[in-house]
Design a protein that fits this description.
heterodimer, A: 60 residues, B: 660 residues, alpha/beta, two-stranded antiparallel sheet, 10 strands, elongated
Chain lengths: 60, 660
Amino acid sequence: MHGIDILIGLLVFGYAGFSLIRFTKKAKKGKCATCEVESTCQTACDDVNWDKVIAEALKK
Amino acid sequence: MTQKIALLGNPNTGKTSLFNRLTGSYAHVGNWSGVTVDKKVGKLHGNRGQLIDLPGVYDLDPLSADEAVVARFLMEESFDGMINIIDASQLERNLQLTAQLLEIGKPIQIGLNMMDVARTRGTTIDAEALAKELGVDVFPIVARTGDGCEVLLSSIPEAAKKYTPLRIDYGQKTEQAITAIIEIADLQEQERWMAVQYLAGNRVFVEYLEKKSPRIIEVRKELERQLGRFIHAHITECRRNWAVAIRAGSVVEEKSDRKTWTDRIDAVVTHPILGLPIFFAVLYVLFHVTFNWIGAPLSDLLGAFIEGPISTGVVFVLTQLGASGFIQDLLIDGVIAGVGGVLVFVPQIFVLFFFISFLEDSGYMARVAIVMDRFMQMVGLNGKSFIPMIIGFGCNVPGIMAARSVEEERERLVTIFISPFMSCSARLPIYAVFAGSFFASNQAMIVLSLYILGIVLALLAAKVFSKVLAAEEATSLFLVEQPPYRVPQGLTLWRSTWQKGKGFVRKAGTFIFGGSVVIWLLAYTGPGGFNVNMNDSFLAMIGGLIAMLLIPLGFGTWQAGAALITGFLAKEVVVSTMAIIYAVNESELGRQLAGQFTPLSAYSFMAFVLLYVPCLATVAVIRREVGSAKWTWIASLYGLFVAYGISFLIYQTGHALGFS
């Protein structure tokens, strides 16, 4: 096993692991992951308490 | 402290266009109502503070979950000023909301948008006279092109001055009740608007104030008795009278009987009989252009580039560096096959998104909701639910969020449940591979048939869910504003296309990359160690778990099983997995598949992929929007049974009829 194998292997597997974990976390959040203004947005993702809003709508 | 400015107005008046102009954002803009269902905060150019884009409302009293955001924002959050966008062509109706905003008494500026549309309808508005009548600054703007937006922006700092709240005279009895409520609920004088909102029946304020001081209920009941009618009807009438007076003082009307272009086009595209065939024809053209004319040739070019120079280049570099066979396989058969297999479809995805954006911005998509209203009524929904479904054609996640604009809760839930049947863009690469390999000359027709299959099954599922969820047989009315047709602007179109397509490219570089590496590793290793025969790999074992079940559907191989299992994470991964399994590039993939699938089983497979389960992100958003674990499970899994049933029917019936 050469040094180059270890280097490329670490890079590829490291990046793969990192992007998988990040995507899964983001996908679970659902909302912000797909938001269009993500780059300039200053809202915290949980700024609107949707559980509350939806619970209210359900009551109605 | 940075100041916070709220952006308010009726639906589809151009708030988000203005928001993008003033903050340099690229939020989704569509020529229909209900594009914004959440609030969005952006930084104003020149450090002038924050601009908050709120969903469009006709009234502060919320009818749906997205509208509740507005009332809640005004009541609970501190802000320094408001920009109210008014559609000049619908002045009187827009002013009803303006009246309520003026009553709040915060600094407010009016952006008068769509003056050009008003003019074609024979109405000219004197902005100066309107400003005088309202007592606030009015700026004529064209939000789409940005005309006048600079002036509006530069006048924001002046908004710090004090404004006196508007006082509409609601008549002696109501005024007495307002005073009583202010006193009992211990409100400040400048919070008179809250008392008015309470009397008008605004749900958010009713809940808040009655909790604070239950005694005000008596005041409301007494007033209703005195008026002899619903208070909200009385208050709305007073506001309307106010709006009529304002309009009279600022509008020069030119009577015009001529039909506008919008009327003429509508007569055809929303025709009760022609409407639906026209919609399908539009979709057909869209797919034909995407798959046959522009998209496919571009995809082929990109495919050739990835297979040729890129692959050869990587092999050359790796050999020069002395990398081992393992690393070479990892990069060529794993990363390049998996990521490249999805990336080649970028041109097709962009062409499709370009045309969808075109239809959205032109105003046609809003008409589709009208055309579909009749069919939606049959299944207990109405046309409004079709708008989230159309958005779902891009990606199911925003589609499901857009269901917030559906007023009736049962209908909102049903809309969410059926949205995953809308064929999102992530399924497109799968269609492209299979339709391209097995139905080369009829690609557009095959893809169209899958989209229609999705819509039809969504309608049937809606019927079932409506029956299960309905407490009583009550369908809500469908009222949607029909925006005027317009020729979409190049820049808006490009942004809209880029916004939709960007996610696809990003996903290829991140998640698909990671997924490809894992899938390749699973295919490379097995109980026997490394570099095993792929049929003995872990991936083959995983896929083999369900392969037996898939035999009656025509694709009972471990390869199909593995692709379907990994596809739950994101639908594009189905194609990546297949590219890795067959260790070939995209053009070669078709030939390899021909050995395992027949046209019939390929169609059955495409139908299965369309319906079987929503992807992980969609499941997460369903969980959030539905708020119940039980319903999330149901919404995520019923598709599996539907998919199995439909694919079974397609394959077995086709087989019995002699197709192969």
